[in-house]
Amino acid sequence: MNITLGNYYPADSILHRLDPRVKLLAALTVMIVIFFLNSPLSLLLFVLVLFVGIMASRVPFRLVLRSVRPVIFIASFAFLINIFMTPGTELWSLGPLTITHQGLLVGIKMVLRLFFLIMTTTLLMTLTTTPLAMADAIESLLRPLEKIRFPSHELAMMMSIALRFIPTLADETARIMKAQSSRGADFDTGGLIKRAKGLVTVLVPLFVSAFKRAAELAVAMESRCYRGGRGRTKLRELKLRPPDRWAAVILVLICAALLLIEYLVPLGWFGLV
User: Fold this and answer.
1) In which residue ranges of the chain is pLDDT below 70?
2) Are 47 and 117 in contact (CB under 8 A)?
């Protein structure tokens, strides 16, 4: 099963060498900024920045594009909701359903923003960052909360394990579906209820396998004397280097430029109105 979430792509690039804390904060910043971008010019410039980031990461473009597959259904649903529910100039009508010009534009922008968001966060948090490095970054950023007894290490460990086993469970699901199909199971035909019943033959062995893996992992961690984060040391301590600081400054400048273009530059200068 082709899935990018949780899959690390090894390479020697600028993004791979960046501090994972910088990449995590960059992903969170992009998640906020992207939903403020509405004009064609700002979205076009964001595409340019994303393309430069993909080239700098040395990650194959097809892997980044593959990251949007899991959200195609959600994006399609959001697109349909926007084109039919947004009031404006009518373009096409069939009974109670009416497509408006404004709804079409809003739907396209919503889908683009969602795709750009998934591609950017996947590039920064998954394809160029190992699960262990991401867990260390989360623990480091949440460490100040330990003063109020917040379990930062345990939370980071849970997220790291979850990311690590997403591809494993996806492959396991694909193998179980192929095995059940060879025994006559049908997952593609029939109504919704029939398909749901057919998935039971996949979910039961998948849950059994997941619980078995969880038990084996717990035994392995206990046999290695894992007792939480208290008193633990790390082989590689996270330290900000000059390239990390420069990357943070460049990110802030890019986000500020995008927001300035969005709210201060008249689109009529570029013939976009």
Assistant:
1) 1-6, 94-95, 187-192, 194, 229-233, 235, 265-273
2) no
What is the Cα–Cα distance from 4 to 125, expressed in whole angstroms?
Answer: 11
Dist. CA 36–CA 22, nearest whole Å:
21
CA 125 – CA 227 distance, rounded (Å): 27
pTM assigned to the model: 0.74
Residue type, 39: S
Pairing of strands 90-94, 97-100: antiparallel
Distance CA 142, CA 159 (A): 13
Nearest to 33 by CA among 120, 92, 99, 150: 120
Scanning the chain, the segments in alpha helix (DSSP H) are 14-17, 20-33, 40-57, 61-66, 72-85, 101-122, 131-142, 152-182, 192-223, 242-264
Read off the pLDDT of residues 14-53 as tens digits, 9 standing for 90 and up: 999 999 999 999 999 998 998 888 888 888 899 999 999 9
